[in-house]
Amino acid sequence: MSTSRWYRRASVRRRMRWDLAASDESATRRHGGRPDAVAAVLLGFVGRVAQEYGRGRVGSRLVMSTPQQPELARSRRTASDPSSAKLAARTDLPSEDGDLGPMPEANLPGHHPPEEQDKPSGPPKLPPRHHRFAFRRDPQLALASRVVGVTEDNAFVDVDDERLLIRFGPWQLETPMGNVIGAERTGPYRWWKVVGPPRLSMRDFGITFATTTAEGVCLRFRDPVPAALPRGPLRHKGATVTVEDPDDLVHFVEQTRARRDRESRS
User: Fold this and answer.
1) Alpha helical stretches, state H, the chain
2) What is the pLDDT of residue 58?
3) What is each CA distance from 87 to 64, 71, 231, in whole angstroms?
4) pLDDT tens for each residue of 110-145
5) What is the pLDDT of residue 56?
6) Model pLDDT for residues 222-263, shown as the tens digit of each residue
7) Residue 49 lies in a domain
8) Rounded-to-integer distance, Cα 256 and Cα 248, Å
9) How far apart are CA 177 and CA 220, in angstroms?
10) Are residues 138 and 229 in the same domain?
11) Residue at 228 is within a domain
């Protein structure tokens, strides 16, 4: 350590001791000799001195920190350095007469293959759906339906993306899902209109398969379909079923119709 630097640090320490003693004496006179107030003043003074040391203003010189660019800290070279990689990089294409020959067309900037590998050619194909809805059964109406051969095993609504099947004991209704044009919740019903075998509406010739009076789903068809008399001339424009999850059945039918509309437009 040089003599001038040693004297400079010694003068700083001496000045700190004088300032500390002066502040101690003035704090004692100002606060009436209370130890807690004097300690608070001294701690504040020591904190300011430590802060000045941390900033490099007391007894040391200010030193610039390392730059924050990691690549500059590693190579110590910037773009203005003649030996930097950025200046040595070439932006022109190799000539056709060189040793390497012309650049392939597929490697030229802006080239695209005839068919993009990662670009889909159409909408994604969704997996097929299938669900079977059981009938909701009231004890009294279920007993009356059992008399005509309707049980829990042979009463259900089976739907998928292609067809709709309603099974109600010995009665059956089957039609493509493309023939189903709507589904909506209905109910409640009067018990004498739904008890027992399937009921026929004389107003629109719709058929009702019911095992409860609470609620159900009315399915509407574009073309009438047979059910009550499979081999007869009677056809039905709609069918009401009292399934356990009416909202799910309505949602299933609406989703199937929306999917068919998208496929027909694409």
Assistant:
1) 3-30, 35-54, 70-75, 85-88, 139-147, 191-194, 246-265
2) 46
3) 28, 15, 89
4) 777 777 777 777 767 777 889 999 999 888 888 888
5) 47
6) 999 988 776 778 889 999 999 999 999 999 999 888 888 877
7) yes
8) 12
9) 11
10) yes
11) yes
* Domain count along the chain: 2
Extract the tokens encoding 189.
Answer: 């019903």
Domain-located, residue 220: yes
Quick check: 219 pLDDT over 90?
Answer: yes
Write down how long the chain is.
266
Q: What are phi and psi of 248, to 5 degrees?
A: -65, -40
What range does the domain containing 177 cover?
A: 130-265
9-57: pLDDT as tens digits: 666 566 655 555 555 555 555 545 555 555 655 666 666 655 555 554 4
Reading the block at residue 151, the tokens are: 């049980």
DSSP helix/strand/coil, 129 = coil
Q: Which of 136, 131, 220, 130 is nearest to 173 (CA)?
A: 220
Are 38 and 156 in a shared domain?
Answer: no
